[in-house]
From TrEMBL:
SUPFAM superfamilies: YbaB-like (SSF82607). Keywords: Cytoplasm, DNA-binding. It is found in: Cytoplasm, Nucleoid. It comes from Maribacter orientalis. This is Nucleoid-associated protein SAMN04488008_105101. InterPro entries: YbaB-like_sf (IPR036894), YbaB/EbfC (IPR004401). Binds to DNA and alters its conformation. May be involved in regulation of gene expression, nucleoid organization and DNA protection. GO terms for molecular function: DNA binding. It comes from the Bacteria. Homodimer. Belongs to the YbaB/EbfC family.
């Protein structure tokens, strides 16, 4: 029994290391979100760090419109990045979890 516990602890530590490596890798995964008319584009990492915002000159003429575009496009970008982030981390965590009945439903 003690050996099983040590094996499980080792597996959990290994999983923790994989999660940390995945977090670092997600810093390099970039997603691009554009407004419906392509006047605004946002590049974001899967760890939700904004890397670039490209604004068409036509949006600079109307401050309120630009603000609306930024809010909508940034929110979509953050939502997509969060989905990728959560899916990647859940996959790594699920892979490293011991087979405990009922636990698999937590990672769906």
């Amino acid at each position: 029994m003690f050996g099983d516990m040590m094996g499980m602890m080792g597996k959990l530590k290994e999983t923790q290391q994989k999660v940390e490596a995945t977090k670092k890798r997600l810093d390099t995964v970039t997603l691009e979100e554009k407004s419906n008319d392509n006047l605004l584009a946002v590049t974001i990492t899967a760890n939700r760090q904004i890397k670039k915002i490209a604004i068409d000159d036509r949006l600079l003429e109307d401050k309120e419109q630009l603000e609306d575009y930024l809010i909508m496009t940034l929110n979509k970008a953050i939502q997509n990045a969060t989905s990728v982030n959560e899916a990647e981390l859940a996959a790594v965590a699920k892979e490293g979890m011991p087979n405990i009945p009922g636990m698999d439903s937590l990672f769906k």
